[in-house]
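SAMPLE LOG
Freezer: B-3
Tube label: C17
Construct: single chain, 193 aa
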Amino acid sequence: MRKNWVLDYTAAWHDTWEIIGAFATFVAVALALVGFWFEARRAQRADARAEAAEAGRAADRAATDADRAAADAARIARERRAQALLVLAYPEWHEEHRGLGGRAVGHWRVRHGNYSASPIFDVFAQAFVGSAVDSEMTSSVLVPGGAGDFLTTATDNAAPPVAVIFFRDLAGVRWKRLQTGELIEVDENRRPI
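STRUCTURE (predicted):
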């Protein structure tokens, strides 16, 4: 008869159960390692996506800041140009009397004025008769609303002199304004930039 069937069964299958247990443990450890590896890869991809998204947002912020800076610079340039357009120099005829045959006798003056809301500096105005400098005027500052004039040697009311004014605005930008209205940015030597 049988002594103890459980002991017999266990003795007969003991090595098999140990092998199965060891294999199951190996599979469990392998699955855990594979799961850990997949989780680490997923976390790396998520971190990479987060870093890429942050880099994209930083690039967008930089582009927005650059656009804002460019827009501000353009606005400031427009404001400076608008101020500079309010500085004028132009010839003006002053008739003193009528001569023989009704001919006007007088002289030309060059009027210059700052009609902007800001002072201008290093003001230099010239009057040209033909291609030669006829007369000029210098002033260190011209306040808002300030104006003046200077005489030229031109006395023919049919041939006015040509007026040009150079000045520096509050921002330090130097300008040349022709009586025709043309406005040109110039360097410290009055050469166009």
